[in-house]
């Protein structure tokens, strides 16, 4: 079956609601995709064993769109999710903002790697993005998010993101980002002179600092990036940069440093 | 106009930079920003303070309001605020204090900032226990012996001093900008009157942050009830380890956690107290990536005047 | 680090805890050298802890650790945010926390020394932090300093005038300093020393020893009235 890439979002007039699902199951000791449900514009392709690409995120979402992606990684399975291109968030004909929701569960002994291309906030957009991650005690996670403040030379629209990750019900990381308020964005406290922000949550028992409660583990830092051990079993790699190339390079350095912070 | 809260004078004492609780030695990232040259004068400083208030300040305000509300509820119900809600191993106040403290942990990715926050929290509880002796502060000190996060300590101290959650939130928001402002005055030799003018300009934003902090408590209590009605998977006991990965314990996607409005919460009890803990996961979590980098850079630099 | 005793929050209650000795004085007068000297003299016979209040680095703490006069773990550094006098007088929370942390980790201790960051003549320790205090001057500041007084010079339990070996070089008259100090100090002791020549600061160490013994004795007696068993700080 082939689904053509949808036409450019800007030519679309009606806003859409889409619900896509990825679910794995364990079959003869191997990961199998139990459900792979596309719902345009959220179109999913299996591109390898335990590997899924989002293929239709080249343009949009538009104002008024509400896109939901549910990811269920069954115990003992491994899933990797990528995208083929950046997501360009645009204003639409609807005055309402666009919404992207991702709900992911990673079961016992399972692993999820989520590393899509960046989300670009075009001028005039009004976007909300919410991610909820529920990890079982011994799940493993790599979750990357990159946000670009406008296309080249453009001021971004507004965006609010919320990220909630829990491990066995305990909060691991809760973060919101607000982008598009000039009074806040450019200040030296929030983004400085950066035009891109990226973060990767790397989590699993190998980063469990429970034995080390009183003395916080040290972060590893470099120019524009940091790998920060969290209070729970995880490390947040974080980077700020002037462009997407620099952002990816800094974020990858932070991710490598985060991997080294694992407790052997 | 609302009734005059009884804690106005206590709020002044609590927010005063002369409160002997160790705050004078923290710059909230300003020292590192000065070292890197991203704060050089009043204009940079104004933007730094506005950004800090919109992120770390709002989060602190919300956590302080939640802690104050919870402290008042435990004071009203010594057996625990959920004592009437049936047997629940997570309902003892010490476990709930640790849960709220864990919510602060989850909102503080930078270990340097977590450490600075715990040090300040510990020093504040130490002083507050002598200034405003109360069972609530003793309970908190016992529940989190390594030192509760500063906003949690501030909320509990506010309750012990007789402040309401709005006042606790206001004190936290105020603290989030006055410390860095004072540090910048000392480090750059700025005109202190100019810097106080900056703080005066921020006054409406401080009020807004405190309102938003309290609104987030109310909103999410409402959300919690709605979620319970609809899906039945939300509830105060969301922290139990028996939940598997499929159980949702997070804030609703549709939550408007940062609404601002002239809403005040008093000390909650009755039905609201039952839902107290369920509001915590959805409290604001505004991050400031640059502040994280500043905090970690500061910690690694041996030449410094301030603890953070 | 961290200390959350139920019993130690009130510094006014000295039962069963170490004597807390503040050492203050202007920059360069020899506070850190005196602390090192006291560790050398008293270390063998007393259980010690040291808290330093550095101005811009943890240099004083590092100096003491490198000097090898005390187990490095027993030396804690406190940062004072540009205001060394605030940390020992107006807002002593961080210093108290450091003192109690030492007592918690290594207690019971006999003596905890709190060295202030170098400051001016008005800086003195809060009684909430230090039970007794020493103010250190040096002769190179000029022999008029004691006459000028100031809270440190006047009220410290002991005034130490250091670097007497430099007196001839800087034209300082020790007799004048002694007379002026006596005039403003109302009988409280003054000791002259040159820690460069006497690396154990014997006279000061003797004074401190007698202080610690008195402290212990009076606390033991107080214990007898209030408690049936001796308790320790921990």
UniProtKB/TrEMBL annotation, chain B:
It comes from the Bacteria. Coiled coil: none annotated. Its main location: cytoplasm. Keywords: Chaperone, Cytoplasm, Nickel insertion. InterPro entries: UreF (IPR002639), UreF_sf (IPR038277). Residues 257-266 have a biased composition (Polar residues). Required for maturation of urease via the functional incorporation of the urease nickel metallocenter. UreD, UreF and UreG form a complex that acts as a GTP-hydrolysis-dependent molecular chaperone, activating the urease apoprotein by helping to assemble the nickel containing metallocenter of UreC. The UreE protein probably delivers the nickel. This is Urease accessory protein UreF.
Automatic annotation (TrEMBL), chain C:
It comes from the Bacteria. GTP binds at residues 25-32. One of its GO terms (molecular function) is GTPase activity. InterPro entries: CobW/HypB/UreG_nucleotide-bd, P-loop_NTPase, UreG. GO terms for biological process: urea catabolic process. Keywords: Chaperone, Cytoplasm, GTP-binding, Nickel insertion, Nucleotide-binding. Residues 21-191 form the CobW/HypB/UreG nucleotide-binding domain. Its main location: cytoplasm. It is found in: Cytoplasm. One of its GO terms (cellular component) is cytoplasm. Belongs to the SIMIBI class G3E GTPase family. UreG subfamily. Facilitates the functional incorporation of the urease nickel metallocenter. This process requires GTP hydrolysis, probably effectuated by UreG. Homodimer. UreD, UreF and UreG form a complex that acts as a GTP-hydrolysis-dependent molecular chaperone, activating the urease apoprotein by helping to assemble the nickel containing metallocenter of UreC. The UreE protein probably delivers the nickel. This is Urease accessory protein UreG. The lineage of its organism: Bacteria, Bacillati, Actinomycetota, Actinomycetes, Streptosporangiales.
